[in-house]
User: Fold these one by one.
Assistant:
Number 1:
Amino acid sequence: MGLLATDRLTTTATTPNPQASPSSPPSAAAVAGRLWRVLDPPPFLLAGACLFLVAAAVAELAVPALTSATIEAATSGPGKVAAITGLFGRKASAAAAASAAASASAEAALRTAVTRLACVAFMYGSCAAARGGLFTLLNTQLVHNLRTQLFGALVAAPSDFFDSGDAAGAATRLGADCAAVARCLSTNLNVAARNLLAVVGGAAYLCAASQEAATACAGVGAVLAAVAVLYGAYSRAAARAYQDRLADAGGVAEQALGRASTVRALGGEGAEAARYGHALNRLRRVANRQAAAYFAVIAANASAYNLAKAVALAAAGGAALRGGLSAPALTAVLLYVDATASALLSLCDQFGAVMEALGAAERVVAYLDAPPAPQLARTGVAPPGRHILSVVLENVSYTYPSRPGVQALAGVSLRLDAGRRVALVGGSGSGKSTLVQLVLRLRDPDGGRVMVGGMDATAIDAAWLRGRVALVEQEPRLFADTVAANIAYGLEVVSEGESRGGAAASSTAAASSTIPPPRTTRAAIIAAAVAANAHAFISALPSGYDTPVTDRLLSGGQRQRIALARALVRDPDLLVLDEATAALDAESEAAVQAGLDAAAAARPRCTLIIAHRLSTVRTADEIVVMEAGRVAERGTHAGLLATPGSAYAALVARQAGAGGLGGVVDLAPHESRRGTGEGGEDGGASPSSSSSSSPLPEEGPDAMMDGAGGRESGEGGLAPSGPLDTQRER
C-alpha cells in the first residue's frame, strides 16, 4: 500500500491542471452518481432491463426447490410400490393393481416435476438473455455518452492544460478508462445485481427452512463481505494508479510515434524504447501488487465458500437427525446453501471489480467536471456592426501558470486598426507568441484588458470571434481529410444559393442578437487557394481538391500554402501571420504576398505579422520591437533605423554582418526552424520525390541567413513528378 501511495503522489505531481488529482478522491457514491448522469438511460430500456433482471433472479431461485422436488419424485416410487405389495400380501391381483397404480402415480409426479423444472430453466434462460441484451444496450449508450462528453471536455480544456502536459496521456482516457467503465456496467453491475437478488432470496428461504443453516451461512457471509470491502477499497486505489500509469505509457508511445522522423534522424530509437520500457515497468509494478492482492482474496473467498457449505451441512444434518428436517427438506436446504454461497462469492468478486471501475473512472470524472476554458463562452454578443475594426491591448500582463515566477508580458499596450499592418519582432522569449495568443483570445490577461471592436474581449461571443479571426502558423498542421475540407476547416460548406440565403439569415440574426454559423462555398475555397498560390499543386493531385491528405503527404511549403488558403477563405477581420511565408522560396513568397495584398485591398482588416525576414517586416505600417515581455520601441522601418541606439537597428545590423543591409537578413535567426519537420520535406509520398542535398542558388537580398523554413523548389508532395521542398542549413 505504501508503494501504491507513492505512485499516486507521482501521478498527482505530473497531472496537468485543472485536471490534476484532488487532494482526496471523491467518494464511490459520488463517482457512481456522476456516471449515472452521464448514462442518462432511456426509462423504457432501464425498466425492461430491471424487469428481466428480477424475473431471471426469481426463476433462478426456484431451480433448487424444483430440483429437490424432482429428486423426491424420482426416489419415492420404489418405496411406495414395496409398501403397497406388503400390505396386500398374497392377494396377487390386488397387489399388482396397487403396484401399477403406485408406479403410474410416481411416474406422473416425476414427469410433472421435470416439466416444471424445464419450464423454469427455459424461463430463466430467456429472461437472462433479455437482461444481458438490454444491459449491453445500456452499456453501449454509456460508452458513447462517456467518450463524447470526455472528448468535449478535453477539447474545451484551458490552454494551460495543453501547455503543462502532453495531451496524449489524456487521450488514452478515451480508450482505456472508458473501456474499464464499460465493463463495469455490461458485466460487473449486471452480474452483481443478479447475485444480490440470489443472495437475498436464498437467505430468506434458509431462514424459513432452517435457522441453523441460515445462521451458519450468515457467519461465513460476514467474513466474505469484510474481505470484499477491504479488497474493494484497495482495488479502487490500485485501479486509479494503474490507469494513470497506463496513460503515462500511452503518452510516451504517442510522443515517439508522432515524432518518428525526429527519432529516426537523431538515432533515438533505443532511448525511446528504454523510456517506454521504464513506463511499462512502473505499470507492471502496480499490476504485480494487484495480482498479489487478488491471490490473497481468492484464497480467502474459496476457503470461506467451502467452509460455508460444510458448516451449513453440519447444522442442517444435525437438525435432520433430531427430526427437525425431512429428507426432501434437507436436500432443498443443501441446494440453497450451495446456490446462496456461490452467489455471495460471486457478489464479492463483482464488488471488487466495480470498485476497480470506479477507481478508473475517477480521473474521467475529474476531466468531465473540470470547467471549460473561459475563452469558449457563448455570450451571444458581438461588436457593433458585427465586424472587428480595431484590437487594442491596454497595459496587459500575463504569467503562465506553469511558470509562476516568470512574467511573460508586463504592461504591454498595442493597437491594431483595420487597414493597417503591425509587425512584431524580437528575440526568443520576448513575448511575441504570448501577445498573439492574447490578441486571438486563446488566453486572457492577468492584468489590463483586450478590447475588440470597442468591447472587452471577455464579453464577446467565442464562436463569433473565432469566425472573424484567422491564424497562419509557421508550422501548420493538416487534418486527415481532403484538401478542400482542410481549407474549409471550421466552416460549413454550402452551395452558392445557400450562401446568399445565409447572408439574409445573418442580417436577421444580427437583428435578433444571435450568432449565425460561419459558412463558405466551393468557389470561395478555390479562390482562397488561388490567392495562396496553392491552386496549381492542388489541381495536380490525384483527385484535386478532394484528395485525402495528411501532414506526411505534403511538403512544408505546400502545407503552409494550404494554411494560408484556410485563413483567406474565412475573409477574416483579424489576420495573424506567424512566419506565414517561411517555407516558401522567393518566387512563391512573392506570389503569396501578392495574394495577401489583394485580400487586404479587398476590404480593410487588422493584420498582425510575426516575421524574421526583413522583406516581410519592412513594409509594415508599424513595427513593434519586443524585449523581455515589454515593448522596447515602435515605429516604421525607416524611422527605427534612423533612431540612434534603436534596438531594431541593432537587430538588423547584427544579422546583416559584413554584407550590410544589402545582404541576407534574418531578424531572429535563433528562432528559425531547421531540419525537416514531421511529414515535412522528407515526408512526401510521391515515388519520384526526393530532397536535394546540393547547394541552392542564392534567393536574393531578403533570403533567410540560415535557411529557416525551407525553400519551395517545386510542387512535390502528391504531385505526379515534382520534387519535394528542400532546405539548406548552416
Number 2:
Amino acid sequence: MCGAACYHTHIHTRACTHTHTLTHTHTHHKAFDCINHDVLLEKLKFYGVSGKFYNLVKLCLNGRYQKVILSHNNSIESTWEKVKQGVAQGSILGSIFFLTYINDLPKLATIGTKILLYADDTSIIVTS
C-alpha cells in the first residue's frame, strides 16, 4: 500500500463558543513512490507543459528501470524491473512533480474543512 506512516490528530474544544476543531497532520513518507504517471502527465498538460519538455518528462517517467543490489561481493541482486509509478525522491524535478500532483488537493475541502499543504506535509482542519 502506498502512503505515509505518520499521522498526528489533535482535538480542541472551546466551551464558551461550543465549537470543536479537529486538526489532522499527515506526512507523506512514501508518497513520491505512489504517483501515477498518467495522472501526473495529465496535470502537467493542464498547467501548460507541452512540446519537447513534456515529451522528455514522459520518456523519463515511462522509461525507468530499477533493481536492488544487496551485496556487490556475492552478486546478490534482483532483476531489472520497470518502474510503473513514482518519481525520484530527493531530486529537484521529483519534488516539483510531487507538488504538481497534490496541488489541487485543497480544492477537495468541504465547508468547515481546510486543507493546508507544505512540502510533503498535509494538514486537514475541520471546524464545527
Number 3:
Amino acid sequence: MSSQFTKVPSWSSTPNAELPLADAVEKQEVNHLNAEQEAAIEVLTGRHLINAGAGTGKTTCLVARTRKILEMYPESRVLLISFTKKSVEELRQRIGSTPKVEVSTFHSLAFHILRSAGMQFQVAMTSEAEQDALISEIIGQRNTTIEAVKQSLRKTEPKHEDTKVAREEYLAYLREHQQMTFDTMQLFALRLLRENKAVLRAWSGKVTHILVDEYQDVDELQAEIVELLSQRTGNLTVAGDSRQSIYSFRGAVPDAISNFAKTATQHDLTVSHRSGRGILGLANLIMPQEKPLLAAIDNPVPVYPKYLEAYNAEDEAATVLDEITYLHKKGTPYKDMAILYRSSAASSNIIPLLSKRKITEVNKGTIHSSKGREWSVVFVVGAAEGCLPSIHCQGSAIEEERRLLYTAVTRAKSRLYISYPRISNNHKEPNEPSRFLSEIF
C-alpha cells in the first residue's frame, strides 16, 4: 500500500481520488447553538452524557448548560470540573463571575476536600527520583515494581497483592510525615469521602449540579469522586470524546464514556466547527465505528489532506520545512502551523533543521500534548508502522494508537499533511505506512 503515497519531493493531494468528504451542514451564527447542542441542554436534571466529537463545541455546550441551570434554578449551586488550570480559567471567563458556580480541577477539588476535614499536611515537592527511591526502599524484596506502585496510586484497588501492600506502606509513610503528593491527593480525598459520611454529606450538600469536562480522561479515582458527590441529587453531566481517550498511561479509563453511557441520557455532538470536509472525511475513516463528523465550515472548494512517502527521515524533515516556508511566504504565520509526532524519535531530524533555518516562531510537540489545541495547518510526521502505532503497543493498546492519529488529524482546521520516511534512521528494514492509513487506502 505504500505505493499510494507520493515520493519526495512532492506532496499528493490524496492517495485515493475517491476518498470521501465529510458531509457539510449549514454554518451556524456565532454564539448560537445548533440543534444538537440545544438538545444537550434541554433537560437539566438527571445523568447526561455529551459525547462531543472534535471541534463540535463541547465547551460552548457546557457553558450554555451551566447558564441555563442558573436561569431555571436560581437557588442552584454548580460544580464544574476540568483537568487543567488553563481550561478552568477559560470556563471561568466564559461563564462569568458568580458565587453560584465553582470551577475547579480535580486536584484542587481533592485538596479542598482534605483541608475542609481539618487534615494537616504539606504538599511534598519531591523530585521523581526521590519518590522512586522511597518507593524502591518500601518495595524491598516484594514482587512488584516502582512503576506498578505509582500506577496503582490512580486506581481504586490494585489487583496485584504485593503492589497493594507496597502502596499502603507508601501511603502510611506520607500520613505519618503529614505529607501529600500530587499523585496521592485524589486517593486520600476519595478515601475520606468513602469513610467519613459527615464529610460526604457536607460536600454533596454544597452542590445541586455537577458537570465534568474531558470525561474520557478520568481515572478510576476521579470517576468515583464525582459519583459520590452527585449521589444526593443525581444531577451529573459529563462531556468528552471517546475517540480522544489517549491517556491510559496516566491511569485514564479507556471505557469511561461507554461505561457512563449505560446509566445516562446520551447526546451526540457531530457538527464540527473546526476542520474542513477533507480533513473530517479522513478522521471519519480512521474511526469508522463512531458516528461520522459533519463539517460546518463554509468552504465551497474542499481541501484534501496531503500525503508524503519520503525516502528517509532527512528528506521528510526537509520537505516538511520546505512546505512550511512556502506557506509562510504565502501569508500563514508560523504560530498557525504545527508539527506533531508520536514520539520524540520521529522529530529528531526536524528540530535541528528548524533551528538551522531560523524558524523560531514554529508549534512542535507530541500528539499527546496537542489535545485541546488547534492550528490552521498541521503536519503529522513519522506516520509509519512501529512509530504510529508504536512498536511497543499490543492488543487493546493498538486502538489507543488509532485514537492518537484521530486526535492529531482533528487538530487541523484548514490544511493537513501526513508523512513518513520509507527508510528509518537505523537503516534496517524499510518502513511501511501506518496500518491506520493502509486500511483506508
